[in-house]
Amino acid sequence: MKQRPDRLFNPYRACFDNMSSNLAAELLRYGKSKSNCISLAQGEGSLPTPSFICEEVHRSLSEGKTFYSFGAGLPELRQEIATYHSRIYGHSLPLNRISVTSSGTNAVHLALMSILEEGDEVIAVTPIWKNLIGITELAGGKIIEVPMEQKDGKWHLDLQKFFGKVNKNTKALMIVSPNNPTGWVMPTEDIRAVLEFARARDIWIIADEVYGRTMHDLVKAPSFLDYAEDDDLLYVVNSFSKTWAMTGWRLGWLIGPGHSEDKIRDLILYENMGPPTFTQHAGIVALRDGEDFLKSQKSRWKRNQELVLDALSNYSRVSIVKSPAAFYAFFQVEGETDSFALVRRMIDDVGVSLAPGGAFGQGFNGYLRLCFAANPEVISQALKRLEPVLKDN
Ligand SMILES: Cc1ncc(COP(=O)(O)O)c(C=O)c1O
């Protein structure tokens, strides 16, 4: 950093400057830059968005739906989100609790921007998707990690340990369920306990439920909204990305207490004025007619999971817990302690890119995350290439 005579000159905001480095993003880019590298590093499949959703964009454009939307989203889409919650979950949500956002990522950002003061602590269940750590830091907050452990062949959160981290600086609890990367799903009784705990202390809950429809054997995962009261300090984040293969669309929604509506609307207006009008129209169709597509995706994920577990079971160095949701294999490789170096080696030596476990929180640097939402042929090829890396030394 160049020096001014009177002081050390730093052109950036402190929280921007202090954000933790994002080595996983570097590796993702590195893998993508290699023409023959198979990437199972990112959280998406290889199927494009189904045509019945894309056609709605064409129709909307041809009908001139190219004007500014409303701050909190098109009223028709907000209504459709309410209808979807009622049909799938049995939730009754007034429209003033629903905001349409430019992705799930954006929804988390809006939620945290609306509540965090500089130095506030957010207690997060880990492993956790790296962006949620970054967004918290950017909003001036500090993530306090509470790592899950494996118990009886499952990932497990010790609630007392989680609650034990709360202190006077705690502003929010952050929970991703179903979880990326483990596929862990918070049990119903824990959801209720967290709600009660937070309610008694006026602490916010940020519940990221973008994988809520990815349960392999159930229609949906338990949601915080199943038990919440309308004015609980609760933000629930959702997205079109994972459920309907719409990762590139940048479309999601945020459910908050009714009293947050105007502020969230203004945040959206000041940030980007919300997602494109014509994609919001397509979002209505995804919510209304997307169940068959989701069903076919789920059977694909389930088959792919078997394929991956089968292959990984051949390696004594690899240990993995079978997940009930999402489309990730999060596995530990005995003897490996630097997942970032391991991923770089895999890209260079065998042409496979995975996500480094170290990106998901402290204590997970011996892990790798493989996304099994891709074509089974591609996954098989990647698994074959991984053989020399994973076999006994
Ligand atoms: C837990 C979690 N939340 C949010 C997102 C992002 O969703 P979107 O594509 O809507 O930004 C992801 C993407 O991987 C995720 O894993």
What does this molecule look like?
With 393 residues, the chain is an alpha/beta fold. It has two domains: 14-49 and 292-390, Aspartate Aminotransferase, domain 1 (Alpha-Beta Complex), CATH 3.90.1150; 51-290, Type I PLP-dependent aspartate aminotransferase-like (Major domain) (Aspartate Aminotransferase, domain 2). Helix content is 40%, strand content 16%. The chain is built from 13 helices and 15 strands. The chain has helices at residues 14-17, 23-33, 51-62, 75-89, 104-115, 130-138, 159-164, 188-201, 261-271, 277-289, 291-312, 339-350, 376-390, and strands at residues 38-39, 98-101, 121-126, 142-147, 149-151, 154-156, 170-176, 204-208, 234-239, 252-255, 318-320, 328-333, 352-353, 355-356, 367-371. Strands 2-10-9-8-7-3-4 form a seven-stranded mixed sheet, sandwiched between helices. A four-stranded antiparallel sheet has the order 11-12-15-14. The longest helix has 22 residues, at 291-312. The protein is globular, with a radius of gyration of 21 Å. The termini are far apart. The model has no long low-confidence stretch (mean pLDDT 96). The protein binds pyridoxal-5'-phosphate (PLP).
